[in-house]
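subagent[fold] <- orchestrator: predict structure for attached chain, return tokens only, no commentary.
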Amino acid sequence: MPNVFLTGSRVYGPITENSDIDVVMEKEDALQLLETIKSDKLDFEMLADYGDVSSFKFFIFWFPPINIIVAEDAVDWFKWKYATEKMMEIPPIINREERIEIFHKFQKEGFDIAMKKEGEEFLKSDEYLSRFGRTDRG
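subagent[fold] -> orchestrator:
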């Protein structure tokens, strides 16, 4: 089962006419999606393929552009999830640059939390399990 979640302004606001759909996924799932898209199984327009598989953006049908953010490992996944949840706890920030700066601050907090637990130990920690209830990561 893919481990995917939404992030960005469509989750924590404010949504504008320029808001794309930001999706965080684990690397294996993202690579499979990218392969499916590029094999012409979907009617799409690739808007950006950054080459390093850290993210790519595409447009399908009438939806806004979809930006796939690739989580390289469990720590990377956690810092995105942590920052998204923290952003949802505060009122929407109108200024985009300020919103990005605060999101990055929360990502750093998430990274620091994960690194204090030293990798795999972190995935078994009470903090991780209480936040996400997952034991099948890794």
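orchestrator: received. Logging for downstream: Residues 96-116 form the longest helix (21 residues). The chain has a mean pLDDT of 80.
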